[in-house]
Amino acid sequence: LQRWTYAGGKQWKGLISRREIEREVCEWGQK
């Protein structure tokens, strides 16, 4: 999974599914 193109922004490409986004956000929130 690629990192967000812009940190804190919603500029992810359509390659990321909703599940992957939620998963990333979960890990992101723990940092």
Descriptors for this entry?
31 residues; mainly alpha; 42% helix; elongated; Lysozyme
Overall description:
InterPro entries: Lysozyme-like_dom_sf (IPR023346), Lysozyme_dom_sf (IPR023347). This is Lysozyme. Keywords: Antimicrobial, Bacteriolytic enzyme. It comes from Raoultella ornithinolytica. The radius of gyration is 9 Å and the shape is elongated. The model has no long low-confidence stretch (mean pLDDT 67). The chain contains 1 helix and no strands. Helices cover 42% and strands 0% of the residues. The protein has one domain.
What profile does the largest beta sheet have? none
By DSSP, the count of extended strands is: 0
Shape: elongated
- Give the DSSP E fraction (strand runs of 2 or more residues): under 5%
Q: Which parts are unreliable, with pLDDT below 50 for 5 consecutive residues or more? A: none
Look at the structure and give the mean pLDDT.
67
Estimate the helix proportion, in percent: 40-55%
The count of helical stretches stands at: 1
What is the ordering of alpha helices and beta strands?
A: H
Ends: how far apart? 17 Å
Report the C-alpha radius of gyration, rounded.
9 Å
Structural class: mainly alpha
> How many domains, as an integer?
1
Keywords: Antimicrobial, Bacteriolytic enzyme
GO molecular function, one term: lysozyme activity
GO biological process, one term: defense response to bacterium
InterPro entries: Lysozyme-like_dom_sf, Lysozyme_dom_sf
